[in-house]
Amino acid sequence: MLTIEGLSGGYGSVQVLRGLTLTAAPGKVTCVMGRNGVGKTTLMRAIMGQLALTSGTIHLDGMALHGMPAHEVPRHGIGYVPQGRRLFGPLTVAENLDIGLMTRRKGAATRDHVLDLFPRLRERLSQPARTLSGGEQQMLALARALCLEPAVLLLDEPTEGLQPSMIQLIRETLIRLKATGVATILVEQRVEAVLSVADSVAFMAQGSVAETVAAQGLRPDAPQFQTYVGV
């Protein structure tokens, strides 16, 4: 269980997060939605130790992550696919995966399992990451994160700019991960994508979670989408 309580922080003198509280349970997808600028990406960066906090705590199964150096956070089982993917472009697909494997000292069995999820990557192991299509790069970013065998997976708008077949592949992958007990925090703006995979939706406003709703009880025309997202 990832537990975030009273989280506040930002960039220099600009405060973005304001007392944010959120939980992510094993085998569940928690979707975070909100208008641009409310702090969704900042929340992800805070969990990954990339943001100076002024208050609040982050715990994974009782272990304190707040204050931990950023390079240590993934070693405790937090996988992260940032917006823009952040691949190592000159390195091959295999080398990008190896970086994920080395983070938590995983081996060939983990690599094979990940490639079974994304068989297209198996065909491109020797290809530089920067030469992949946008959809293939997103596959690789997700595959690299899964090489950690994460307890928690953070995804920041993974379907942005992708064709429907790739969006469907990401959805199917998230459903498989739920079955293995991975807790997922998904930042997503597509209502249909959210309702197809999320267990709960946390709506952000002004740097905090204003309302959390069970996804099962939401419809595409639910007032929360207009209030918090503008769709």
UniProtKB/TrEMBL annotation:
GO biological process: L-amino acid transport
Pfam families linked to this entry: ABC_tran
CDD domains per the UniProt record, alphabetical: ABC_TM1139_LivF_branched
Keywords: Amino-acid transport, ATP-binding, Nucleotide-binding, Transport
InterPro entries in the record: AAA+_ATPase, ABC_transporter-like_ATP-bd, ABC_transporter-like_CS, BCAA_Transport_ATP-bd_LivF, P-loop_NTPase
Leader sequence residues: none
A GO term, aspect molecular function: branched-chain amino acid transmembrane transporter activity
Ranges where the ABC transporter domain occurs: 2-231
The keyword Magnesium belongs to this UniProt entry's keyword annotation: no
Domain of life per record: Bacteria
UniProt similarity note: Belongs to the ABC transporter superfamily.
Protein name according to UniProt: ABC transporter ATP-binding protein
Lineage of the organism: Bacteria, Pseudomonadati, Pseudomonadota, Alphaproteobacteria, Rhodobacterales
